[in-house]
Design goal:
Layout: H1 2-17, E1 36-37, E2 52-57, E3 67-69, E4 72-80, E5 106-114, E6 120-129, E7 147-148, E8 152-156, E9 162-166, E10 171-175, E11 194-196, E12 199-204, E13 210-216, E14 222-228, E15 238-242, E16 245-250, E17 256-260, E18 266-270, E19 282-284, E20 287-292, E21 298-302, E22 308-309, E23 316-320, E24 331-333, E25 336-340, E26 346-351, E27 357-363, E28 375-377, E29 380-384, E30 389-394, E31 401-406, E32 416-418, E33 421-425, E34 429-434
C-alpha cells in the first residue's frame, strides 16, 4: 500500500512539474476572431539573450500569421523555385505599388514545426507556379494565414489554391479551380479563410467577379457560392451567433454585410465604408464592429439582428469618422476596442458600449508603419511595427507602456500568443518567445 501511494504521489508531482499546453491559436485572430488569447501569459520583455526559446529560418517570403495546435506550429511561404532567386534575399526599399520586378516561379509551401524545439517536422509544396499578377512592394504571394481544427490544416494561397493537409502533412484535398484574382492596382492578395463547423469560408473579392464561398472542409466541395457586389477587399470573414444561428460578417467597400452560414443568403448590410477595406470585423456581446481607414475613416457598431439595409436604423449603435484603421484589424478586449490611425503608430482605445474614447490618437513611441494587428494576452496588448519593434502596453483604459522589444527584422504578420509563449513570424525567421 505504501509503495502504491508513493508511486501515485510521484506521478502527481511529475505531472505538476511538466508544462501543460492547454490552449491553441487556430486562426490568425485566435479562436474567437477578436485577437485575444483568454488564458495566455506570454513574456512582455525579450532580447537576444532573454526569453527567446528558439528561432528558425523560413525560406522565401510570407506574412501569413503562424497558427498553433497543441505541439505543432504551422506557417506558409512562397519559396523561389530557384534557390538563388533574388526574391529569397532581404527586400530592398521599393516603390509603393507593384514591385516592377519580373515574376518568378515560386514553391507555395506549408511548414510544420515542433512547438517545443522549433525542429521542422515536415514541409509540403502545395503547388509550384509563377504568379499571374504582381503584388504591392510591401506584400508577397503568401500573405494569407493558414487555419486548423486540430484534425487538418488548411493553407490558402489565393489564386494558387486552397490545400487541406492532415496534421502530419498528407494532402487530403485541394481546390485550385476558383479562378485568378485581379486585385486593385496590382496590390496582391491576402484575405484568409475561416473555419466554421463543417465549412471553410473563402472570401474572393477582386476587380473581377467577387464572391464568398463555403466549401466542405472534409472534401473541398462547394456547398454554396454567393456573388458579392464588391471590388478588391483584403478582410477575413468573422463568424458570430445571432439568435442561435450563425452569421458570416464580411467587410466591403460598397457595404459591410452579413450572410447566413448555412445558405449563403445575405441577411443585412450597411454602407459608409472607405475604399479598399482590409481590416476584419470583431464582435462581442451581440455587437459587431467594422472599420476601414483608407481615403477616409469609418468605424461602426452594429446589432447583427437586422434585415436588409440597416443604414440609418437603430441597428447602427454608433459610428466614428476619424483616426480609424486601414490594414490592421481592431482588437476587442474586455469592452475596449483598440485601433490604429490608418497604417500609423497612432493608437486609440474606446469604450465599445458608447464609442467614447478612453484615450485617442496617442502616438506610440517606436511604431511608425503598421500591418500586423494588435493582440491581447495576460492583461497586456502587443503592438507590432513593420520594423520589428513590438511595444507592450497594459490592457487598460489608460495608456501605459510596459516594454519595447525588437525582433531584429521586418514583421508584417500578426503574432500568436498561446499559453506562456508568443510566436512571431518575421521576414526571415519564426520566433518562439517564452518565459519558461
Amino acid at each position: 500500500m505504501y509503495r502504491t501511494t508513493r508511486l501515485l504521489c510521484m506521478l502527481v508531482l511529475c505531472t505538476a512539474a511538466t508544462p501543460i499546453k492547454a490552449d491553441n491559436w487556430p486562426h490568425w485572430r485566435g479562436d474567437n476572431g477578436n485577437g485575444v488569447a483568454l488564458k495566455a501569459t506570454p513574456p512582455v520583455e525579450w532580447s537576444d539573450s532573454k526569453n527567446v526559446k528558439w528561432k528558425v529560418a523560413i525560406p522565401g517570403q510570407g506574412s501569413g500569421s503562424p497558427v498553433i495546435w497543441e505541439d505543432k506550429v504551422f506557417v506558409v511561404s512562397g519559396v523561389p523555385a530557384n534557390a538563388d532567386d533574388k526574391q529569397n534575399q532581404p527586400a530592398a526599399p521599393r516603390r509603393r505599388r507593384g514591385n516592377g520586378a519580373a515574376l518568378q516561379k515560386l514553391k507555395f509551401t506549408v511548414f510544420c514545426f515542433d512547438r517545443a524545439t522549433g525542429k521542422k517536422l515536415w514541409e509540403q509544396v502545395a503547388t509550384e507556379a509563377k504568379p499571374h499578377q504582381q503584388t504591392h512592394a510591401t506584400n508577397n504571394f503568401a500573405s494569407a494565414s493558414p487555419c486548423t481544427d486540430g484534425k487538418h490544416v488548411y493553407a490558402h494561397f489565393g489564386s494558387r489554391g486552397l490545400y487541406c493537409y492532415t496534421m502530419d502533412g498528407q494532402l487530403v484535398w485541394k481546390r485550385d479551380d476558383l479562378g485568378l484574382m485581379e486585385t486593385r492596382n496590382g496590390f496582391g492578395e491576402g484575405s484568409s479563410p475561416t473555419l466554421a463547423g463543417d465549412k471553410i469560408i473563402v472570401p474572393w473579392d477582386h476587380e473581377g467577379e467577387s464572391a464568398i464561398f463555403a466549401l466542405n472542409k472534409h472534401t473541398g466541395k462547394t456547398m454554396w457560392k454567393t456573388p458579392r457586389d464588391e471590388p478588391t477587399c483584403w478582410a477575413t470573414p468573422l463568424i458570430v451567433t445571432v439568435d442561435g444561428k450563425k452569421q458570416i460578417i464580411m467587410n466591403g467597400q460598397t457595404k459591410a454585410r452579413a450572410y447566413d452560414l448555412e445558405t449563403g443568403e445575405e441577411l443585412w448590410s450597411c454602407g459608409g465604408q472607405t475604399e479598399r477595406p482590409a481590416a476584419s470585423a470583431v464582435a462581442e456581446n451581440g455587437v459587431v464592429y467594422i472599420a476601414s481607414g483608407f481615403r477616409g475613416s469609418f468605424l461602426g457598431a452594429f446589432r447583427p439582428d437586422g434585415q436588409g439595409d440597416i443604414e440609418g436604423t437603430d441597428h447602427v449603435l454608433w459610428t466614428i469618422n476619424r483616426d480609424t484603421p486601414d490594414i490592421a484589424s481592431p482588437l476587442l478586449s474586455l469592452g475596449r476596442l483598440y485601433f490604429y490611425k490608418a497604417r500609423t503608430g497612432i493608437l486609440t482605445c474606446i469604450d465599445t458600449a458608447t464609442g467614447k474614447p478612453h484615450y485617442k490618437a496617442t502616438r506610440v513611441p517606436g511604431l511608425n508603419s503598421i500591418y500586423a494587428s494588435p493582440i491581447a494576452a495576460g492583461g497586456y496588448v502587443y503592438l507590432t511595427d513593420r520594423s520589428g519593434t513590438i511595444v507592450v502596453i497594459k490592457d487598460s483604459g489608460e495608456f501605459e507602456i510596459v516594454a519595447t522589444n525588437s525582433m531584429g527584422e521586418t514583421v508584417d504578420a500578426t503574432p500568436a500568443p498561446v499559453d506562456d509563449e508568443l510566436f512571431v513570424r518575421g521576414e526571415k525567421h519564426l520566433f518562439c518567445i517564452s518565459g519558461s
